[in-house]
């Protein structure tokens, strides 16, 4: 059976006769030439002991390695995704910024002073707009955090003298560049890179966790059928054939693999649930997969907002200035005027600046 393609095995299995049809074929004692091509072919097949059980095992053996590799790859992606999300300093800083801004907007109300928020809130940040009708709350969050991230990036580059991620002429061309505008530019680069940092998390969001568990259960069930066939029907035949030996060896090796997959699937799903609990509190069963989807959509929104901020900055630099007027960076409070509730409550950047110094 090593030469039979899996598609052929699957096609032959679909041709399996009913019990009544099989009985008629077995009892037929006439000339084979009197039968039609299909009946003649099936007559030869049913004369082979347990032909369709053999085909079922062959089909499983043919597709087994590809299915196991797919499950292993998916489980590995989920594991890395959980670690990426929990260990992403920048993502946690963004959540911190959203929480602080939300508390400032709700200051004096029953919603103020919150210790946490549901991650679904991230998807609503682009719906809340300032008095200009264009600038969203997500724009505000980005503008708030890029300054502190820019200072951190500039400091790290100076301390390590490693400019692999930042061009040297951006940092040290002259003292004029050591401005709010310069740090915001560096910070924008950092925030824009979050999607790349969480690449496996985005892949995990495309996976069906229940479907993955179902694939592992399917492999276990198919192995059980092959084991039962080997230990019952094949044993009763006392057949010493190449098929028998190959099936016996396959079942022994597959039992080790499937046992490992069952344990690994249980471990990874537990990790996914604990990650969901980390961000959601006591999460429901499907919160893990939903968490990845929420963050993926948020990253798309964040990337779009970063591009808008960059474009608006480029447009601002193209506006001709009066030669007598000094070239000053945009007022740091300009965006605050779009959200009046924020005035005189500028975000404290000290925690972002000093935490990793």
UniProtKB/TrEMBL annotation:
Transmembrane portions of the chain: none
InterPro entries in the cross-refs: FH2_Formin, FH2_Formin_sf, Formin-like_plant
Top-rank taxon: Eukaryota
GO molecular function list: actin filament binding
Span list, region Disordered: 313-335
UniProt similarity note: Belongs to the formin-like family. Class-I subfamily.
Pfam families membership: FH2 (PF02181)
Protein name, per record: Formin-like protein
Example GO biological process: actin nucleation
Domain FH2 residue range list: 1-328
């Amino acid at each position: 059976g090593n030469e039979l393609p899996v598609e052929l095995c699957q096609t032959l299995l679909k041709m399996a006769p009913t019990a009544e049809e099989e009985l008629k074929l077995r009892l037929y004692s006439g000339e084979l030439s009197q039968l039609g091509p299909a009946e003649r072919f099936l007559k030869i097949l049913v004369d082979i002991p347990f032909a369709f059980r053999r085909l079922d095992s062959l089909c499983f053996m043919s597709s087994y390695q590809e299915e196991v590799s797919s499950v292993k790859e998916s489980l590995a992606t989920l594991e890395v995704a959980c670690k990426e999300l929990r260990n992403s300093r920048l993502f946690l800083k963004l959540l911190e910024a959203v929480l602080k801004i939300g508390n400032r907007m709700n200051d004096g109300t029953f919603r103020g002073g919150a210790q946490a928020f549901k991650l679904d809130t991230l998807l609503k940040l682009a719906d809340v707009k300032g008095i200009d009708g264009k600038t969203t709350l997500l724009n505000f969050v980005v503008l708030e955090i890029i300054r502190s991230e820019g200072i951190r990036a500039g400091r790290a580059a100076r301390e390590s003298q490693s400019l692999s991620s930042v061009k040297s002429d951006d940092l040290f061309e002259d003292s004029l560049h050591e401005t709010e505008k310069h740090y915001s530019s560096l910070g924008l680069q950092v925030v824009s890179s979050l999607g790349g940092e969480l690449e496996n998390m985005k892949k995990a969001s495309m996976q069906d966790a229940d479907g993955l568990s179902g694939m592992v259960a399917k492999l276990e069930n198919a192995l059980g059928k092959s084991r039962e066939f080997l230990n019952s029907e094949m044993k009763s035949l006392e057949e010493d054939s190449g098929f028998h030996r190959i099936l016996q060896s396959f079942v022994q090796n597959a039992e080790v693999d499937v046992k490992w997959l069952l344990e690994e699937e249980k471990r990874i799903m537990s990790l996914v649930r604990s990650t969901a609990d980390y961000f959601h509190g006591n999460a429901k069963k499907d919160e893990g997969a939903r968490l990845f989807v929420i963050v993926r959509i948020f990253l798309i929104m964040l990337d779009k907002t970063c591009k808008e901020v960059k474009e608006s900055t480029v447009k601002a630099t193209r506006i001709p200035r009066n030669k007598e007027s000094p070239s000053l960076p945009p007022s740091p409070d300009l965006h605050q005027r779009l959200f009046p509730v924020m005035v005189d409550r500028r975000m404290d950047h000290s925690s972002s600046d000093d935490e990793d110094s």
